Amino acid sequence: MKDAIQNVAAGIFIKDRQVLIAQRNRTTRNPAFRGLWEFPGGKQEEGETILQCLEREIMEEFAVRCRADKILIESPYAYDFGAINLVGISGELLDENLTLTVHDAYRWVRIEDLPNYAFPPADLPLIEHIKNLR
């Protein structure tokens, strides 16, 4: 099943024209992603919807609950290790006391400042979409 496309949830949490981003751990399995910034989330598991996936991943990665609202954009991308479909999902954090469990850092950044951060290629269409949100 090497050719299967992996759905990956990416949380787009916006508050006061700022969006939550997280820095990949410098010991991440794939060296190409170490230290890059991303929209928090992760791989969809069998038997869960992509919205459930985001809620589970945020609990695992930050020890807080969130409400996943709706899919905003999908960004299919073929990496050398396999193809993913990065699904940008709007949501709301139900607690602001985030605890880092897998990332090196997190930040709330102004939407217009997103291009100043290094992201994996699949995330770039999400940034463009977010910049156009009103």
TrEMBL record:
<dbReference type="GO" id="GO:0044716">
    <property type="term" value="F:8-oxo-GDP phosphatase activity"/>
</dbReference>
<dbReference type="GO" id="GO:0044715">
    <property type="term" value="F:8-oxo-dGDP phosphatase activity"/>
</dbReference>
<dbReference type="Pfam" id="PF00293">
    <property type="entry name" value="NUDIX"/>
</dbReference>
<dbReference type="InterPro" id="IPR000086">
    <property type="entry name" value="NUDIX_hydrolase_dom"/>
</dbReference>
<keyword id="KW-0515">Mutator protein</keyword>
<keyword id="KW-0378">Hydrolase</keyword>
<protein>
    <recommendedName>
        <fullName>8-oxo-dGTP diphosphatase</fullName>
        <ecNumber>3.6.1.55</ecNumber>
    </recommendedName>
</protein>
<keyword id="KW-0235">DNA replication</keyword>
<dbReference type="GO" id="GO:0006260">
    <property type="term" value="P:DNA replication"/>
</dbReference>
<dbReference type="GO" id="GO:0046872">
    <property type="term" value="F:metal ion binding"/>
</dbReference>
<dbReference type="InterPro" id="IPR047127">
    <property type="entry name" value="MutT-like"/>
</dbReference>
<feature type="domain" description="Nudix hydrolase">
    <location>
        <begin position="3"/>
        <end position="132"/>
    </location>
</feature>
<dbReference type="InterPro" id="IPR015797">
    <property type="entry name" value="NUDIX_hydrolase-like_dom_sf"/>
</dbReference>
<dbReference type="GO" id="GO:0008413">
    <property type="term" value="F:8-oxo-7,8-dihydroguanosine triphosphate pyrophosphatase activity"/>
</dbReference>
<keyword id="KW-0460">Magnesium</keyword>
<keyword id="KW-0479">Metal-binding</keyword>
<dbReference type="GO" id="GO:0006281">
    <property type="term" value="P:DNA repair"/>
</dbReference>
<keyword id="KW-0234">DNA repair</keyword>
<keyword id="KW-0227">DNA damage</keyword>
<dbReference type="GO" id="GO:0035539">
    <property type="term" value="F:8-oxo-7,8-dihydrodeoxyguanosine triphosphate pyrophosphatase activity"/>
</dbReference>
<comment type="similarity">
    <text>Belongs to the Nudix hydrolase family.</text>
</comment>
